[in-house]
User: What shape does this take?
Amino acid sequence: MFQSTLMSTPDAVTLFDVGGGQAQGSREYQEDFYTVIRPENFPAETQDKLAFFALYDGHGSGLVAEHASKRLHRLLAQRPEFERGDYAGAMKAVLADEDGLLLESFKHDSVEPAMSGSTAAICFINLTVGELVVSNLGDSHVILAERDPKTECPYHIRRLTEAHKPETPSEKARIHEAGGSVETRSGVPRVGSLNMSRTLGDLQYKSPVNTVESDSDSTPRDRRMVSASSKPTHGDYVSNDPYTSRRTLKPDRRYLLVIISDGVSNNTDDGALVQHVMKLAMRGCERVILHEMLPPIMLFFHIVIMPPVLWHF
Assistant: This one.
C-alpha cells in the first residue's frame, strides 16, 4: 500500500514511476524502440513539468522506429503549436515533420524509409496542469486505468487509442479516394504488404513516392528519383495523421498508463493486463513481462501517476 510522506508539490499530478521492457524474439535485429523523457530531461525551456513517453513498433527494419525514438520528442518541443500550449495540434504536426525528415533521407541517402515503417503510441503529460495528450498511428495502444483508493484495484480501464486498419470503412474509403486499394491476402486486409493504414515511414505508400505505381517495373531507387522531381498524382494510401485524444488528470486520482505493441494486445485482455501490471509494477517491469506473462515478441511499458504528494511504499 502507498503511504504519503515527505512533501507536497505545486503540480496537479506527480510522476511516480516508469518501467519498460521488450523482447526481440527470433528476429535477427531489434525493430522496436521506446522513449522515456522525464521532466528533468524534457528539451524545452518552461516552468511546467513536462514528460513524454512513446512506443515505436517497427516493421521492415528498425530504421524508422529508431529514427523517431531519437528525434520526435525534440521536434515536438520546437513546434509553434507546442509553445502556444496546443499540444494536440503539435502532436499531429510533429508526426508529419518526422515523415518529412524520412522523405529527405529517402531522396538523398537511402531507399530504406520507403520499405520500412513503424507504429507510434505517444503520451505527453503536462504534470503541472494535469493535461494528458495521447496520439497513435497503427496498432500500438495506450491504456489508462485508475486505482480505487479503497480496494487498491484498477477500475475505469479504457483504451485511449484507435487501431488503424485498412478494412475499417472510413479508412478503406480514404485509401480509395487517395488512389489506392485494399486487398485481402491470406485472410488479412492489406494496403500493399501492410495490415495497417496509418504509420510512420512506409513512404512507398505515401505521396510523392507512390507517384510511381507499385505494380510497374520501377525499383525503389526509381521512385526516389521520381519523387524528388515530380508533382504528386496520388494521395497517401497510408497516412501519418494520428488519432489524438486529450483529457485532464484529476489531482485526487491515481492513474496507470500502459503503452503496448500488438504483440501484447493481440495476446492479452486489457483488463487482465492492467491488473497484472498494477499489482507487480514495482517489482520491475522487465521481469514481469518477460518471465511471467507475455509472448516473446512485444514491447511494453507502464507509467504511474499519483496525486501531488510524494509517495513511497
